[in-house]
C-alpha cells in the first residue's frame, strides 16, 4: 500500500471501474496492431477490440488468435461505435483511410496512429478529422523485423518509448487519456512536435535502416565474394545489418517517401562524417579513428544505462548451452 493511502482518515481514491475504452478499432492488424491488442487485453483496457485489414487471411488469423472480436474489410464499419481508433497501416495508406472513416467517427472519439513518420500523418490525416474528434498522432518506438498478425506480442511496448505529437490546441484531457493508455500498454511516453519527431527518428531509425538495406545489397552484388561466404562469415558484423534489412519493404518505402527532408539532411551529415573516416583510413590517421570509435562506444553504453538494451554480448543472443548448433 502506498504511503498516502495508509494515512488514517485520508480519503481513498477509488480506481475507475471497467476498461478505459468501450470499443477499440484497430485499422491494420500487423505487428504493431496485434501487439496493441495483446497488451491492451493484458491490461484490460478495452470492452471490445475490433479490426480492419486489407486481406481476408489477416482478418481470419486475427480472429483465430483472439486479437479482435470482429474483423471488417471496410474500415468505415470497424470504427462505428469506437471511442478509440488506431491507424496501424503503412504511413502512405493513412490519408486514404482517414478520408473514408472521417464521416463515420463519433464525437468524443480519439483518433490516433502508430506511423513511423509524423509530419506526413498530420498533413494527410488532419484534413479528414471532423470537429469533436480528438486527433492525436503517435509513434511507439518499438518493433521487430517481422510483420503480420502473428508477429505481435504483449511485451513489445514494455519499457519502450512512445512519442505523441498532439497538434497545437489539442484537448489536454484527451492527450492525457491517450498517454495513460500507452503507459498501461507498458510504454514510457514523451510529447513533442511532429517535425522534431521526424528529425530525431531520421537519425535514430530511418538512416540506420537505409544503411542496413544498402550494405546488405552491396554485399549481395559483390563479384569477388560468393553469396555463401557472405552467409558463412556474417557474424563479423554483417548479420546484425541483415536483421534490420529484413524489415517490411512497404513500410520502409513509405517512411522514406514521407520523411524526405529530414532523411536527406541526416544522410548529408552522415556522408560528411563517412568521408572524414575514409580520409583517416586513407592517410593512416590512427588517432582520429581511435577517437571516433571511442566516442561511438560511449553511445552504446548510454543506451544500456538507459535500459533500452542489455549489456549481454552479441545483442543479447543466448550463449553457452543455448547457443545454436554449429
Ligand atoms: P504490418 O505488420 O505489415 O501490418 C500492416 C497492416 O496494415 C496489415 O494488417 C495490412 O493488412 C494493413 N494494410 C496495409 N496496407 C493497407 C491499406 N492500403 N489499406 C488497409 N490496410 C492496409 O506493419 P506494422 O509493422 O504493423 O506497421 C504498421 C505501422 O506501424 C506503419 O505505419 C509503421 O510505420 C508503424 N511502425 C512500425 C514499426 C515496426 O518495427 N514494424 C515500429 C513502429 C511503428 P493485410 O495484412 O491484410 O495486408
Notes on the structure:
With 326 residues, the protein is an alpha/beta fold. It has 2 domains: 191 residues, NAD(P)-binding Rossmann-like Domain (Rossmann fold, 3-Layer(aba) Sandwich); 129 residues, 6-phosphogluconate dehydrogenase C-terminal like domain (6-phosphogluconate dehydrogenase C-terminal fold). Helix content is 47%, strand content 12%. It is built from 13 helices and 9 strands. The strands form 2 sheets. Strands 3-2-1-4-5-6 form a 6-stranded parallel sheet. The longest helix has 27 residues. The radius of gyration is 22 Å and the shape is globular. The protein starts with a helix and ends in a 21-residue tail after the last helix. The N terminus and C terminus are likely disordered. The chain binds NADP nicotinamide-adenine-dinucleotide phosphate (NAP). NADP nicotinamide-adenine-dinucleotide phosphate binds next to α2 and β7.
Proportion of β residues?
5-15%
Small-molecule binders here are: NADP nicotinamide-adenine-dinucleotide phosphate
CATH T-level topology of the largest domain? Rossmann fold
The average pLDDT value, as a whole number, equals 91
Q: Given the structure, what is the number of helices?
A: 13
Number of strands: 9
Can you give keywords for this protein?
3-stranded mixed beta sheet; single chain; disordered N terminus; 326 residues; Rossmann fold; alpha/beta; 6-phosphogluconate dehydrogenase C-terminal fold
SSE topology:
Elements: H1 3-6, E1 21-27, H2 31-42, E2 46-52, H3 56-64, E3 70-72, H4 75-78, E4 84-87, H5 94-101, E5 110-113, H6 119-125, E6 134-135, E7 138-140, E8 161-164, H7 172-185, E9 188-191, H8 194-220, H9 227-232, H10 238-245, H11 249-258, H12 260-282, H13 286-305
Parallel strand pairs: 1-2, 1-4, 2-3, 4-5, 5-6, 8-9
Antiparallel strand pairs: 7-8
Helix pairs in contact: 5-6, 8-10, 8-12
Bound molecules: NADP nicotinamide-adenine-dinucleotide phosphate.
